[in-house]
Write a structure and sequence with these properties.
heterodimer, A: 253 residues, mainly alpha, 8 helices, 0% strand, globular, B: 219 residues, 85% helix, elongated
Amino acid sequence: MSDISPAISRFSDLANPTRFLALSARLIPWLAAITAILFAIGLYLSFSTEGDYQQGDTVRIMYIHVPAAWLSMMCYTIMSLSAMGTLVWRHPLADVSARAAAPLGAAFTLIALVTGSLWGKPMWGTYWVWDARLTSVFILFLMYLGLIALNRAMDDPSRAARVTAVLILVGFINIPIIKFSVDWWNTLHQSESLMRMDGPAIDAEFLWPLFTMALAFTLLFFTLHLMAIRNEIWRRRIAAQRRLAARMAARED
Amino acid sequence: MTALFLRDLKLSVRAGGGALIGILFFLTVVAVIPFGVGPDLKLLSRIGPAIVWIGALLSALLGLDRLFQAERDDGSLDLLVMQETPLVLTVLTKCAAHWVATGLPLVIASPLLGLFMNMNEMAIGATALTLLVGTPAITFIGAVGAAVAVALPRGGLLVSILVLPLAIPVLIFGVSATYAAVEGPQPFLPPFLILMALTLFFAVLGPAAAAIALRNTTD
């Protein structure tokens, strides 16, 4: 085994759920603590800075809305990577990761949709329009729900994971559509103002709280994701133990 | 492949009248709309293309769960998976047969429904043309859903839930091409070409993904 590079061997070490559980048990408190600190700083910053000269205090919705929208896409990307892990490498933790991420992604997408529509009412005068960005994010939400439903509809977890992985990968087309929808269709939603070639078109005063909140949200996601993976591993172990116990009981009769 | 195509075609035409039921459903969906929005002919002719498209989309979903279900039930799906011809080709053939049996009748029936909706000749022609180009995409997307749901005891409804979000781009560009042809200041060609591109794209992606899903459900 000496010819395997250390990075690969460490990655495949994680395939052992027990090692993963031990590692994540050490990681989660740290992640959670950093997340809490970042949230405290981010929330303080977002409430202490001045409101926008046009939008007033409602601009603070942005500090929730934008990170949640980012995460809704990042979560799907992570699910797609996990799906590749399931189909290509049959990594035993990949399907657990995809399954654990789906409800989180659905939740962040819902947060983005709800805060967006609360922000839209004072700014655009309506809670909802069938704008390209809004519609594609709504489709993303529907896809999360469909994937959760599909994954839960099958009894055998490994088969469910492989079949769901195919659909996750097919649905990944939607992510670039969401990302570029504001540039391709010039509809109501404002166009990209952060990740631009010529630097962010947003004042530094708003950038710092937004950046801190985005980081806090991302770490929150990873914390919750690790916890959900742990839960799923334990759930499968319990199911396996139950099956074993039932078989023993059947043999004794 | 030809034999499989003809077999599937015969099966879906003879067994329970799959094509006929699709058209009937199409007819019913479109006929229900005027009751919902009121029999205003002007309004109907304006929203007509969209209604015909939505009706076609819904009725294309209706028969999708049967694409692999019958084969799974009688065990021939395992033979199809195991045979020497690549599974992707088999799926592509089955999709083609399914489209000829259920999609093509919808396209042929759409002018009649266009008349119900008080659409002019231009709109009827454009709707039929976009449907002809766009419905194969729905079949190919649907094949993925059908393959994914084939392992489920009652996958029919789930197929629709999984497939509809992915089919929305097809609907968007089909309807916008039709509107562009009828009234719009925008030219007809760009959305129409995008629609064609979607169909070609899903013709590649759909059977491949469906083949992977089928392999994973049957082993």
